[in-house]
């Protein structure tokens, strides 16, 4: 996924940082928590009940997790609880995006929906990580895969067609400048800050 050049990436990491849902990936500088013991995961737990004391983490990443949890409000309460005063939380969630179970897929979010979840955390940045062109590419890819008879064929076409459609995403560099881009935005993001004590 091509990053939106306007999405900030320079909020500081602290001594302790938490990454929710990073199973299968190495996330340097973070304690990686997921539902399953996958490569790169250090803590197996449910994000709705984090096994950490209050005010512990300088930064919490929650990237493409909220659509998979039964109770996103509980996850946000837990993020607020474990986030240290002055710390940052980064939320990313799909809006116009195909179904993808891990292990379930319950919902999609607009920017307003993410803001509602943020509660009393201060919004410091918001926008679209990927926009209408990414939405078009991913739906075209999934549409073609619907016609294929086997998982092997779908995997092969996903690789080939995904690579062929990837340049479409460069259109988002221009499209994301439009205030209307969110009507077909693919992934929304929020950067939030907990008030210093």
Number of strands: 7
The CATH topology of the domain at 17-131 and 179-193 is: Rossmann fold
Structural class: alpha/beta
Q: DSSP strand (E) fraction?
A: 15-25%
Poorly predicted runs are: none
- Overall spatial form: globular
The overall average pLDDT, rounded, is: 93
**CATH architecture classification of the domain at 17-131 and 179-193:** 3-Layer(aba) Sandwich
List the helices and strands and how they pair.
Elements: E1 17-20, E2 31-34, E3 43-44, E4 57-63, H1 72-82, E5 83-94, H2 111-118, E6 122-130, H3 132-146, H4 151-165, H5 172-175, E7 187-193
Parallel strand pairs: 1-2, 1-4, 2-3, 4-5
Antiparallel strand pairs: 5-7, 6-7
Helix pairs in contact: 3-4
Question: In words, what does this structure look like?
Answer:
This protein is α/β, with parallel strands linked by helices and 197 residues long. The protein has a domain at 17-131 and 179-193: Rossmann fold. 27% of the residues lie in helices and 23% in strands. The protein contains five helices and seven strands; from the N terminus they run ββββαβαβαααβ. The chain has helices at residues 72-82, 111-118, 132-146, 151-165, 172-175; strands at 17-20, 31-34, 43-44, 57-63, 83-94, 122-130, 187-193. It has a seven-stranded mixed sheet with strand order 3-2-1-4-5-7-6. Helix 3 (132-146) packs antiparallel against helix 4. The radius of gyration is 17 Å and the shape is globular.
